Amino acid sequence: MNKIESMELYTQGVEVWNSWAAEMLAExxxxxxxxxxxxEIDPLGKLWGSNLATEKWxxxxxxxxSGEVFKNEMNFINFVFPGDAKxxxxxxTREVRFNGxxxxxxxxxxxxxxxxYAGFGETKFLGLTSFYKAxxxxxxxxxxxxxxxxxxxSSATFGTAVFIxxxxxxxxxxxxxxVNTGYFSQAVxxxxxxxxxxxxxxxxQFMGVKFNRSLHFxxxxxxxxxxxxxxxxxDRASFDRAEFKGRTWFDxxxxxxxxxxxxxxxxxxxxxxxxxxxxxxxxxxIEGRSLFTLEESVFFLVPDFAQAHFAEALxxxxxxxxxxxxxSRRLWKRELRSTNTDLASRWRTLKRLALQGHDHERELxxxxxxxxxxxxxxxxxLPNPLSFRKGSPVCWPGGGxxxxxxxxxxxxxxxxxxxxxxxxxxxxTSIFATYYFLHYSDLPSESPRTTPAFTCTGDPVAAALxxxxxxxxxxxxxxxxxxxxxxxxxxxxxxxxxGFFPVMPDAVVFAGLIQxxxxxxxxxxxxxxxxxxFRIK
Length: 537
Fold this sequence. Notes:
- It is built from eleven helices and 45 strands.
- By secondary structure, the protein is α/β, with parallel strands linked by helices.
C-alpha cells in the first residue's frame, strides 16, 4: 500500500485493519502451500521476494506512513501489520501508542520523531526493527516488548528509555544512543547486545538483566548512577574505557564469561559486592576515584589489576580468589598454567593493592599464591642439564625458590599457621626422644665406661624426653644443668676415669645439634605466625 491507502485503512479502525491483515496472512499461507512462496532474507534481516507472486504480496502488505506529520494522538493498539511497516521520518507531535501491536515484517522507524509519549508496551516485533536515529523527546516505553529479529536503536535519542522486561531474541544495537534516563531491568538479551559509545545522562537501571550473548559497553558514558544489581552476563562482557561518573552498583551480578573493564573510570562509589567472576576478568589501568569495593566477591580465575589506580584503598573483605570448583581443580590449574604466564604478576598486583588497604591477611594470601603460581612456570622442581644445549646459562631455574617455598608452605603455610610449626616441633621432639632412648637400649648391660655399681635411679624414657625437649627449646638456660647431666648419666652411664661425668655419645651430640637447628627454624616460624596473626609490625 502507498501512504494514502495506508492512512485510509488506518482511519477505519483496528477491526477493519486486522481483518485485512488476516486475509493477507492467509494469502501468504496459500502461497507457501502451493510452493509459489519464494523469499530471501538479506544480511540485514530484511525479506525480499524472489519471484513475481512473492514480490506482489510483499508490496501489497507494506504499510507506509513515512514522512507523515501526525498532529493528533495516534492509536495503533493491538494492530497487526502483516508485512513491512514504514514510519521513516514520521513525526508524532502528540502521544502515540502501539501497545500490543504485532509487526510481522521489517519495522522501520528510522529518523522518526516522537515529541510526546510513545508506547510500545507488549509490542511484538517479529522481523528486523530499526529505530536508527529516532528521537524520543519524552518517553519511549517498550515494557515487555518482544524483538524476534534484530533491534536497531543506534544513535537514537531518548528522554526516558523504558525496556523493563523486554526480550531481544536477536542482536540489540544501542551504540551511540543518547539516553537521559534508562530502565532496562529484567530485560532479556538472547542475542549480542551493543551499547558502545552510548551515553546515559541520568540514572541507568539494568537490575536483573540477562545478557545471554556477548555484551559491549565500550566507551559508554554513565553520567549519573548506574545499577546492575543481580545482572547475569553469560558470555563476554566488555566495559573497555567506559566512564562511570555517578554511583555504580554491580552487586550480586554474575559474569559467566570473560569480562573487561580496561581503562574504565569510576568517579564515584563503586560496588562489586558479592559478584561472581567465573572466567577471566581484566581491570587493567582502571581508575577508581572514590570508594571501590569487591567485598565477598568470588573470582574463579585470578583477575588482572595491572596499573590500576585507586584514590581510596580497595576493599577486599571476605573476597575469594581462584576458588575453582573441587571437581574441576586439576583442569583449572592446567588451564591457568597454559594461558596465564603472567599469573604471578597478577598475584603481585593484588598483594600491592592489599598492602595499600592495610589488609594484612590478604597480603599474606596473595604472597602465598604468588609463590605457588611460579611452580612449573618459572621455578622448576628438578634441574634440567639439557637446558645448556638450548643456550640457557641456568640448568635449574628457580630451583631454590621452588624448594624454599615448598618447605615454607609445609612447615608454616607461608607464615599463616602457628599450629603447623608447633605440631612439627612436637613431632620432631618425639622423634629425637625416641632416637635418644634407642641409644640407651643399644648399650650393653655392663659397659666398660660405666661403674659396676651405677644404676639409673630415674625413668630412661623420661630422661630421653627431657633431653629432647632441652635440645628443642634451643635456649640452654631454660633447663637445669644438673638435670641434664642426670639424664645423660641415666641413659648412657658415667665415665670412671673422668670424675664420673656423664657419657655423651657422639651420635647423640650431633643429633642434638641437628635437632636444635630444626627446632630453631620451627620456633622462628611459630613466632612469625604469631606476629602475622596479631599484625605486629
